[in-house]
Structure formats: C-alpha cells, structure tokens
C-alpha cells in the first residue's frame, strides 16, 4: 500500500522547499522527501551575501527559516530517507523508500548536485575535506592545500584564512583561475594565499598526520613537492540523475532538460534547481525554478 | 533506557561511557554534516531504542575532544565495557551507524 499525495518533491534544498511552499499554499497535499536534512548545498555556505533582503546571512540559518516557513504552510517533510526505486513514467508516480511507498500524480525532482571527489586514491581520507564549515577549524596554524580555482574555492579559502590557517596553496588546473577577479584579489590581499595555475595534483603520500604532495605544471612539466597538513577540495559538482538515464531527457553532463515551465519529457514530472540544464545556478534561480515547477504542477493537477 | 540522545559535557562524559555500551558523536554547532549525523542518530535510536546514544560538542568541550584526539567532526566513537572499541568520521546512514555499534 502506498501513501497518497497530490505532489511529491524529491530534495529539500532551496528549490524543493520553495516548490513546497507554493504547492502547500495552493492546497496541494505535498510531501518533501530528503536524503539528508533540509537545506542542501546552502547549508555548507558560511555567509551568503547576494540573497535579496539579507546582505549577509549564514546558509544554514537561512535554510532553517525556509524550512520553518515550508512546514508552517502545511507541507509534510521526511528527512534521512533512502529512495530505493523511482516509478515515474505512469500516470501515478511512485517512490519506494526505506520508510514506505509514496505516490502522487505530480512529481518535482530537486535533488541538486553533489561535490566531485578528488580523483586520487590516498590513505589519507581524514585530511581530505569537502566542507570547510565542518572541518576548517582543525587547521588553525596549519598549512593547507585548496584544490580548485573557482568562486567556491576562493570563498572557502577566505573563510579558512579567517579561521587562522597559516598558509593556503590554491591549485588550479586551468591557465587562469575561473573565480571572479575581485574575489581573487581579496584572497591574495590576506598575504597567506599563493596560487598555482596550470597545475595538477598528481600524488599524495601520507606521512603521519601530514602528507607530501606532488604538483605538476602542465606548461613547463616542472614538479613541485610540498608538505601539507590537510586539503580542501572544490573541483565542481555533478547532478544526481543516474537513476533517470534513458527515462528523462538529460544533457551530455547529466542535467535534466526542461521546458521554460520546468516540465520534463514525462507528463506530471517537473525539475527545479541545480539539477536542471541551465547556465546560472544560484539560490535565486533555484527558487525561481521551484516556484514555476510548483505552479505548473498545480495547473497540471487541476486539468 | 534513555529514549533520546543524551547531550554530554566534560562532567558527564566519563560516567556515561563507563556505565553504558554506547555510541557517542562529537559535533560542532555550525557544521552541516554534524546536523545530518545527529538526525541519522535520532532515526537509528528510534529503531534501536536499546542502544545508548549520546553527543558532545567539540567546541564547548574542547578539552574532551583534545584528550580523545578528535581530528574532525562529526566523529562517532563506540564504547563497550568502558573502553573505546572503534571510531568513524563523516556522515553515515542509520544502518551503517547501527552496524558500527554492533560490529565493535
Ligand atoms: C561552495 C558554494 C557556495 C555557494 N554560494 C552561493 C551564494 O553565495 N549565493 C547563491 O545564491 N548561491 C550559492 N551557491 C549555489 C547554491 O548553493 C545552489 O545553487 C543552490 O543551493 C541549489 O539549490 P537546489 O535546491 O537546487 O539543490 P541543493 O541545495 O543541492 O539541494 C538538493 C537536495 O536534494 C537532496 N537529495 C539529493 N539526492 C536525493 C535523493 N536521491 N533523495 C532525496 N533527496 C536527495 C540533497 O540531500 C539536498 O538536500 C553556492 C554553491 C556552492 C557549492
């Protein structure tokens, strides 16, 4: 037996929660299913400075406010849920989880993206991190490597520098760091950060709590060996859509292709947020997707 | 049997791990992965109420964290017979947490 809803939303990041607010306010019986906890990627951002109405707010704090609003609107939420099976091609979409089977005529996929892990095997996992908010303060007074030269890597480097890290070496494979020039300059102005461009991390050799790492410059072939206490990796994100290959229209990177109204190739199935094939991935764009997806789901259900 | 996750401090920590075979999670307040792990612990506790579970802030109780060489959070320690049997860092699923305890 499945539990029946009007709308199921998978993923309780900002896209899924915004969709839930709109759906619940449209009187749709709405269930949000989340693998971890509400908030998604924004939980990992210490200060968000471009969210209208909040010149600077902690990501987890902002997400807590959205969660409260969503629940107050009447949406139901289940966190720490493992989805075992998606049946989404029929008129009734059904989701099998470790907490039971849930069914609805409409479904919004808002599962965002997960960080790309370092493609190097090393028995040093306790010192390789993907969340500076979680693990940064253990590196006060220590030397660290930041892998990646995008905005995330520079923003996180600034945060780590603020925690009292002794030195940061940013390693970027491209010729130029893709981060915004203003952020790069702000980071360099701390005097604690050095940047290696056209450089790839090729080896990590653990030496007790430290490790010796090998960097290779792609232009000159020069090798550099240095010792480090830890490593923070920000080399991008990938969409969690492997379960839908051959079912939903995906682009070559695995992002879900949608119509301007967030519809997919399956009637009643919508997508919202970072999981969607698009150019800009921000909180505000995810909220826009979530809004449109929920309103379209409502329209679909009223037909 | 405690129905909830017990919040420990430097005074209660020693007694708790001496008197209970248990899982203890070290966490930080602003750490998203810790928040996930504590929620996982709640779900695990709901299914296995007989397993004693506790948590302790590595910020507020820095001395305890230092004494046990907690290098990152969340880190879960399993105590049996008053001794640390195993530990694991990072986010786990409820079944993995239960397994960590049962195998220790
Ligand atoms: C380091 C960093 C800093 C950033 N800073 C900013 C910023 O300052 N301002 C800004 O506007 N944007 C920022 N962004 C981008 C912003 O965080 C994202 O665009 C936004 O969070 C995307 O929201 P989402 O809901 O689409 O996905 P997510 O936030 O990724 O949420 C997806 C949710 O789905 C859940 N999920 C995944 N798979 C499943 C499954 N199988 N079952 C159930 N649940 C599942 C996940 O656990 C997650 O909670 C930043 C991103 C990064 C990486």
TrEMBL record, chain A:
Protein name listed in UniProt: Thioredoxin reductase (NADPH)
Signal peptide location: none
Annotated InterPro entries: FAD/NAD-bd_sf, FAD/NAD-binding_dom, Ferredoxin-NADP_redctase_2, Pyr_nucl-diS_OxRdtase_2_AS
Domain FAD/NAD(P)-binding: 5-290
Family: Belongs to the class-II pyridine nucleotide-disulfide oxidoreductase family.
Keywords: Disulfide bond, FAD, Flavoprotein, Oxidoreductase, Redox-active center
PROSITE patterns, per the entry: PYRIDINE_REDOX_2 (PS00573)
Organism: Desulfofustis glycolicus DSM 9705
One GO molecular-function entry: oxidoreductase activity, acting on a sulfur group of donors, NAD(P) as acceptor
Automatic annotation (TrEMBL), chain B:
Thioredoxin domain boundaries: 6-99
Protein's name according to its UniProt entry: Thioredoxin 1
Top-level taxon of origin: Bacteria
InterPro entries: Thioredoxin-like_sf, Thioredoxin_domain
């Amino acid at each position: 037996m499945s539990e029946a809803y009007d709308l199921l939303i998978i993923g309780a990041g900002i896209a899924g929660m915004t969709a839930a607010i709109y759906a619940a306010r449209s009187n749709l019986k709405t269930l949000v299913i989340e693998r971890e906890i509400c908030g998604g990627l924004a939980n990992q951002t210490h200060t968000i400075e471009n969210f209208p109405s909040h010149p600077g707010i902690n990501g987890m704090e902002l997400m807590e406010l959205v969660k409260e609003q969503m629940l107050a609107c009447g949406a139901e939420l289940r966190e720490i849920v493992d989805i075992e099976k998606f049946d989404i091609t029929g008129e009734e979409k059904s989701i099998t989880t470790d907490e039971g089977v849930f069914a609805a005529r409409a479904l919004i996929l808002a599962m965002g993206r997960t960080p790309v892990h370092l493609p190097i095997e090393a028995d040093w996992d306790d010192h390789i991190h993907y969340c500076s908010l979680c693990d940064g303060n253990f590196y006060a007074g220590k030397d660290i490597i930041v892998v990646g030269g995008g905005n995330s890597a520079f923003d996180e480097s600034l945060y780590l520098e603020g925690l009292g890290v002794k030195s940061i070496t940013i390693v970027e494979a491209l010729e130029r760091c893709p981060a915004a020039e203003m952020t790069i300059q702000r980071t360099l102005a701390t005097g604690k950060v050095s940047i290696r461009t056209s450089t790839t991390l090729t080896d990590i050799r653990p030496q007790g709590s430290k490790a010796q790492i090998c960097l290779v410059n792609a232009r000159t072939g020069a090798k550099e060996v240095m010792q480090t206490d830890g490593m923070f990796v920000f080399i991008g994100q990938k969409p969690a859509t492997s379960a839908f290959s051959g079912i939903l229209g995906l682009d070559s990177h695995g992002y879900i292709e949608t119509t301007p109204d967030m519809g997919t190739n399956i009637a009643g199935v919508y997508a919202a947020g970072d999981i969607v094939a698009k150019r800009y991935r921000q909180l505000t764009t995810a909220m826009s997707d979530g809004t449109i997806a929920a309103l379209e789901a409502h329209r679909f259900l009223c037909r | 049997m405690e129905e909830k996750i017990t919040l420990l401090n430097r005074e209660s920590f020693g007694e708790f791990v001496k008197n209970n075979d248990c899982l203890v999670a070290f966490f930080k307040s602003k750490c998203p992965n810790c928040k996930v792990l504590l929620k996982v612990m709640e779900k695990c506790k709901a299914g296995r109420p007989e397993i004693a579970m506790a948590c302790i802030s590595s910020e507020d109780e820095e001395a305890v964290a230092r004494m046990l060489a907690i290098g990152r959070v969340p880190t879960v320690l399993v105590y049996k017979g008053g001794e640390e049997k195993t530990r694991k860092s990072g986010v786990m699923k409820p079944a993995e947490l239960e397994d960590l305890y049962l195998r220790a």
